[in-house]
Specification:
- The chain has 169 residues and is of the alpha/beta class.
- It is built from 7 helices and 7 strands.
């Protein structure tokens, strides 16, 4: 199945994407995001605020070891994570439904540029201060009666869109 070892994963070329979790409360959601980040070789995950950090049995239950392969950092707030990423020259998108947001299918990317995507709390979303500090907002178009998706599902869709643009040939 061409699976990489953790060591091979760490040495491999990564998708130029950082995932930021802003006060994500469910450890199962955190684990699921790690698993998706492993699948698409995301550069790193920033865990912020109340978001739990590995090692943790509940994170492991859904991450299945993805938390061991993907690099991660903890920040007291997502504001601090975004500020640090912007200092590195990373272009930051908050994933949020706001006026002027870009529909995911209209995302444009540039070769050589690094990106970050911020996913928010399951109830409150991305903090407004983080949205304000971001370079833009992306949203997934939805056509049903609900206007939100589970954060782990949202992360999978958004990460896949970046992987499709940078890694799938």
């Amino acid at each position: 199945m061409n699976r990489l070892t953790v060591e091979e994963f760490k040495a491999s070329e990564k998708l130029p994407l950082t995932v930021v979790l802003d006060d994500v409360r469910s450890l199962y959601n955190v684990g699921s995001v790690f698993r998706t980040c492993d699948a698409f070789r995301v550069e790193r995950v920033c865990l912020c605020g109340i978001t739990a950090c590995p090692p943790n049995a509940e994170i492991h239950k859904t991450a299945l070891g993805g938390e061991d392969a993907v690099d991660w950092q903890f920040f007291p707030t997502a504001d601090e994570a975004v500020a640090a990423l912007k200092k590195e020259g990373v272009f930051v998108y908050s994933i949020e439904q706001v006026e002027g947001s870009t529909k995911l299918q209209r995302l444009t990317t540039e070769a050589g540029r690094r990106y970050a995507v911020v996913f928010g709390n399951e109830v409150k979303g991305v903090h407004q201060s983080v949205v304000d500090a971001s370079d833009g907002c992306l949203e997934i178009p939805q056509f049903g009666t609900k206007h939100s998706l589970n954060v782990a599902n949202t992360a999978s869709i958004v990460i896949w869109e970046f992987a499709r643009r940078f890694m799938v040939k």
